[in-house]
């Protein structure tokens, strides 16, 4: 076994970066300290060494919010586009993700078997929604739009506990590592209101019960205050977006230990695309504009109160590869740079139940590492972290 030492850099320890070396053997970290040696030396002088980063909310099968483009895209093309989307994500130093809707078991297996290069991946397969909810793609003309269902992507629009029991079991059969639901309306769906709660207590309780029986957790797209509360009190593991989070919602999240994945970039990505000329309906555009200021206030409220936060972007709604802008937004709205990095490493690993293997530079952990030229915390604050990345490793092997 070759002993590789990353020497002379500053090692991010979970709360700060300190001078040190990292030694890797057989794909795992075996030592962290000062003055360590190895068979192969990677000179990290002048660099910050970070653990492999996480994004807890991506959509590799999506490449923007342009409905007209998607309607004119051949069915199989998004599978090939996903290869580039994964590469762009790896180039950000993100070595682990949750794909929150779209990627099926074949996409995940292609990465796991080494057929294509991409981050480690947990997949939701599809999002569970009530009729008329955030994943019901019925349009006023009577047509259903995208994504088209196929053998790897089952229909997940359902109502009532028993229908939902079967949907969750179907998703597990299809390879879901996480169950994603929509307990409120959303921005990108044609006929839902992000201020309205979706699903009742008995419905979400059934979803969580079935997910727990399969040994997996539930994540909930939840924007409305009531939608957040219903999800939290029935045992979901994470709230995605959390736009209209109330004081009561904060208290319940802390009480239940529920995570927040804020995706501060998400509405901005929609507005940026509209400004660039992408055809986005007035209904969706108005919803995106209406949530931006409230979104940031909710994030600040949650952070100040001590809600557990993990980084996620909703990339796929907008471009892949801009993921690290999320850290800069988190700092802009109250986190320290070190807290933002922690949300993207140790905290995210804990949320995804991968803390035993990933998320920090410590002996025994898998050797996912990112070399950042200069001070990573200053780059987070300045919005230049992506430009400063010089190397990314998975299992001790360079991937960029």
From TrEMBL:
Pfam families: Amidohydro_1 (PF01979). It comes from the Bacteria. Residues 48-397 form the Amidohydrolase-related domain. It comes from Lentzea roselyniae. InterPro entries: Amidohydro-rel (IPR006680), Metal-dep_hydrolase_composite (IPR011059), Metal_Hydrolase (IPR032466), Metallo-dep_Hydrolase (IPR051781), OTAase-like (IPR057744). This is Amidohydrolase family protein.
């Amino acid at each position: 076994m070759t002993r590789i030492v990353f020497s002379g850099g500053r090692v991010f320890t979970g709360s700060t970066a300190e001078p040190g070396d990292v030694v890797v053997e057989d794909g795992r970290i075996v030592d962290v300290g000062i003055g360590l040696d190895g068979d192969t030396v990677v000179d990290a002088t002048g660099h910050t060494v970070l653990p492999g980063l996480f994004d807890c909310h991506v959509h590799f099968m999506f490449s923007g919010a342009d409905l007209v483009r998607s309607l004119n895209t051949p069915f199989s093309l998004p599978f090939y586009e996903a290869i580039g989307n994964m590469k762009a994500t790896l180039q950000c130093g993100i070595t682990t993700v949750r794909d929150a809707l779209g990627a099926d078991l074949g996409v995940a297996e292609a990465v796991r078997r080494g057929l294509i290069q991409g981050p480690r991946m947990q997949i939701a397969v599809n999002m569970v929604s009530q009729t008329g909810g955030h994943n019901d793609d019925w349009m006023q003309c009577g047509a259903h739009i995208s994504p088209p269902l196929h053998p790897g992507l089952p229909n997940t629009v359902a109502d009532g506990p028993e229908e939902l029991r079967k949907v969750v079991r179907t998703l597990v059969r299809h390879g879901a590592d996480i169950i994603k639901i929509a307990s409120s309306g959303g921005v990108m769906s044609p006929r839902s209101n992000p201020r309205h709660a979706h699903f009742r207590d008995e419905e979400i309780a059934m979803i969580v019960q079935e997910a727990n029986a399969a040994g997996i957790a539930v994540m909930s797209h939840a924007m409305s205050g009531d939608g957040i509360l219903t999800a939290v009190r029935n045992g979901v593991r994470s709230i995605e977006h959390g736009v209209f989070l109330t004081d009561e919602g904060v208290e319940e999240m802390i009480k239940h230990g529920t995570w927040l994945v804020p995706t501060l970039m998400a509405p901005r990505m929609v507005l940026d695309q509209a400004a660039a000329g992408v055809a986005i309906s007035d209904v969706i555009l108005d919803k995106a504009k209406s949530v931006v200021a409230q979104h940031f206030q909710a994030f600040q409220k949650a952070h100040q109160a001590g809600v557990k936060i993990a980084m996620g972007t909703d990339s796929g709604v907008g471009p892949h590869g801009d993921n690290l802008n999320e850290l800069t937004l988190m700092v802009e709205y109250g986190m320290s740079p070190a807290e933002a990095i922690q949300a993207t490493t140790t905290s995210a690993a804990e949320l995804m139940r991968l803390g035993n293997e990933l998320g920090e530079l410590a002996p025994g952990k898998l050797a996912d590492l990112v070399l950042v030229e200069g001070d990573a915390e200053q780059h987070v604050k300045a919005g230049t972290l992506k430009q400063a990345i010089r190397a990314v490793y998975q299992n001790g092997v360079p991937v960029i």
